[in-house]
Amino acid sequence: MILNERNGRHEYLLQAARQMMNAARTAPKGKGIDVIEIILIDGNELETLARKMENMAEELGFKFFLRDAANIRQAGCVVIIGTREQAQGLNCGHCGFPTCTARAEGVPCALNTVDVGIAIGSACATAADLRLDTRVMFSAGLAAQHLGWPEGCHSVFAIPVSASSKNPFFDRKPKEENTNKG
To answer: CB–CB of 66/51 below 8 Å?
Structure first.
């Protein structure tokens, strides 16, 4: 049998992304409580995410969303990690409020946010071990959150994944907004 790497690259990329998801799942969690949600998108969903980012660039005035949307289109898949809201009841004050019950509506529990960061780090470390190209994107995560991916989550971040000759997420140039919207 002869197997050309180019013919199996996407399937390898998906297998590797699943390993990233496993690393994120098994990362340490505050108080041992798992409120992390992880999804993997590829195919048509990449275009859905990129278009949402382009719309948000216009709405928010963040031109870097345009550059990042182009990167999403260059990715083979995207791992998306977010957290469901659940106060951990420690009254630690890390959220800026003295107690969990005093925390204002919409302010996330700091431990939930830290858990997302640790999960992202574990996923990216796995990607590095597998020699994949990645970049953590706030922009794509926010767009995913606006799309409801993962469902019921906040503090969402996206990790586009690539296995190509040149890392598309490095040496990025700012993308100017297209003025010809014909």
So the answer is: no
> For 67, which DSSP code?
H
CATH superfamily of 9-162: NADH Oxidase (3.40.109.10)
Strands in the chain per DSSP E: 36-41, 77-83, 133-134, 154-162
Q: Using DSSP, state whether 6 is helix, strand or coil.
A: helix
Encode pLDDT of 155-166 as tens digits. 999 999 999 999
Which residues does 143 contact at the CB level (< 8 Å), separation at least 6? 49, 52, 53, 56, 65, 158
The answer to whether 96 touches 39, Cβ cutoff 8 Å, is no
State pLDDT tens for residues 91-137. Answer: 999 999 999 999 999 899 999 999 999 999 999 999 999 999 999 99
